[in-house]
Design a protein that fits this description.
The protein is an all-alpha fold. The chain has two domains: about 1-185, MFS general substrate transporter like domains (Growth Hormone, Chain: A); about 215-415, MFS general substrate transporter like domains (Growth Hormone, Chain: A), CATH 1.20.1250.20. It contains 16 helices and no strands. The chain has helices at about 5-30, 35-60, 65-85, 95-105, 110-120, 125-155, 160-175, 190-200, 205-210, 210-225, 225-255, 260-280, 290-310, 310-340, 345-375, 375-415.
């Protein structure tokens, strides 16, 4: 705990809360309008589309030396869009959709950028702990946000949650400027290591400091080199979508009160916070790649329990265990990306991973809706788990091959080096 990490915690909390509140807040904003819930769902979908586009496009343009200003400007633009939505709630639907897209897109690079900034302020050995703290903050925020939105929307004003989100985003923009600015790595050749040598073998010193057009190609190549990590991150978010979106239908199928979905999902998020905290308390055996694979499979197994165990206690047990393992997946995927790519592209890579995760969530949401039309909720959950395991297998095979190729030059060097006896 230092002044910098405490300040980072405030920035992370203030910038994540609007994201967690936005989809449900948009639904409540339109609940009493002529178009009702349909318009609210459309705005929530537009917000997610904006997030995915903003994280991939703006995140790839983050640069050391001016990252604070870039992120702060994005948060300010998002805050203005958040505050404009309640004011313009009676405006035509295209105007509201455009504001929702802007609210999602403008600050979308902030999670990856802030993560890259804080990991540069702590020693390498403390990075897993700081990422554990970030995951804990995220899960607590997502557990508390729905209840906060409901209370503000029903007791104050339908637009109150969005106004609060705008104020929090503006506060995060101001606090962000007080964080230390990360500098460009001095020796990117050493930082890149074997991973970047494959993905950016054409990168030269002139590409580092020359024209922006020449440097853009190595940046893209480096980002693309992390595709197996992005893929397994999408698999993780697919499981999250399966758990959240099919749960109400599963409860209804088993003739249980649908109102249980709120407490069960809150428990899922709080279990994730506890799991993230536990991960950061010690060093775990195996590489982060193996840890991530094990945790993904464990999460999938727990979701299978949700599909087959009877009653609320059985569903709760499966969700709580899934939440514990799911948070570990989030941390290990970030650590894996950090090891795989050169330091100078970490902020952009975290943003791309965030965007791919959002795309995985949205795709699984659409597939879950189709599955619920064709089969029972239990079958839909098992289908989502099967899809997740397939994506995980593809990503794991690709990561393994890449790791073996990266170690090949080192093994060849040891094989050709002279023995102690001179032979």
């Amino acid at each position: 705990m230092t002044r910098t990490t405490l300040l980072w915690g405030l920035v992370a909390l203030a910038s994540k809360a609007p994201v967690a509140m936005a989809p449900l807040a948009l639904v409540f904003l339109c609940r009493q309008s002529p178009h009702g819930y349909a318009l609210g769902a459309s705005l929530a979908s537009a917000y997610v589309v904006g997030e995915v586009a903003g994280a991939s496009l703006l995140g790839a343009r983050l640069r050391h030396g001016r990252m604070r200003r870039q992120l702060s400007a994005g948060l300010i633009a998002g805050a203005l869009a958040f505050c404009a939505l309640p004011v313009a709630r009676s405006a035509p639907s295209p105007v509201l959709i455009a504001l929702a897209v802007l609210a999602g897109a403008a600050p979308a690079a902030c999670p990856g950028g802030v993560r890259a900034m804080v990991t540069r302020t702590v020693p390498d050995g403390a990075v897993p702990r700081i990422l554990s703290a970030e995951a804990t903050l995220t899960q607590i925020t997502w557990a508390a946000a729905p209840a906060l939105v409901v209370v503000l929307a029903l007791r104050l004003h339908p637009g109150a949650p969005l106004l609060l989100g705008g104020l929090l985003a503006a506060g995060a923009a101001i606090l962000l400027l007080r964080l230390p600015e990360p500098r460009e790595p001095e020796e990117p050749r050493e930082e890149s290591g074997s991973a970047s040598s494959e993905s950016a073998s054409g990168e030269s010193r002139s590409g580092e400091s020359g024209s922006g057009e020449r440097a853009a190609v190595p940046m893209r190549r480096s980002l693309l080199h992390g595709w197996p990590v992005y893929l397994t991150s999408a698999a993780s978010m697919a499981m999250l979508a399966t758990a959240e979106l099919v749960l109400p239908a599963l409860l209804e199928e088993r003739r249980l009160a649908v109102g249980w979905s709120g407490p069960l999902l809150a428990g899922f998020a709080l279990a994730g916070a506890a799991g993230a905290l536990c991960y950061g308390l010690r060093t775990w055996p195996g590489s982060v790649r193996i840890q991530s694979l094990v945790l993904l499979v464990a999460t999938a197994g727990c979701l299978c329990l949700v599909a087959v165990l009877p009653g609320v206690p059985g569903i709760a047990a499966g969700l709580l265990l899934a939440g514990v393992f799911q948070s570990g997946v989030m941390i290990t995927r970030t650590l894996g990306l950090r090891e795989r790519l050169p330091q100078r592209v970490h902020a952009a890579a975290y943003s791309v991973m965030y965007a791919v995760g959002g795309a995985g969530y949205s795709l699984t949401a659409s597939l879950s809706a189709v599955a619920l039309d064709l089969a029972t909720p239990s079958v839909a959950i098992l289908g989502g788990v099967a899809l997740t395991l397939l994506i995980t297998a593809v990503g794991a095979v690709a990561e393994g091959r890449s790791a073996r190729r990266a170690r090949a030059p080192e093994r060849e060097k040891r094989r050709n080096s002279p023995r102690p006896d001179g032979r």
